[in-house]
Amino acid sequence: MTNYQVITKWIVSPDGKVVAEAKSVASAVGSRTEMHQSVSVNQHDGSCSSSSSSSSSSYSSSSSSVARDSE
Q: Is the Cα torsion angle 14, 18, 20, 24 positive or negative in sign?
């Protein structure tokens, strides 16, 4: 099973124009908790627009055991 989460944030000027936009996308795959995250930022300034992005991923797995006392 795959779970996704997308977060988008905007910086808006007092006159209602979008000054900057940031988007983060994360996904977890399976029971092994594999995470991929990418972040992109778009800056809007008048007639020109610039963007930058970065991404990272990590993997982790864990196992647990239960100790039982015998009487």
A: positive
Total structural domains within the chain: 1
Burial of 40: CB neighbours in 10 Å, binned 0-12, 13-18, 19+: middle
Residue 21 in domain: yes
From the list 41, 44, 48, 52, the residue with the least C-alpha distance to 12 is: 44
Token pair for 60:
């982790």
**11-67 pLDDT, tens per residue?**
888 988 777 777 777 777 766 555 555 556 666 666 555 666 666 666 665 554 445
pTM above 0.85, yes or no: no
Residue 47 in tokens: 């007639």
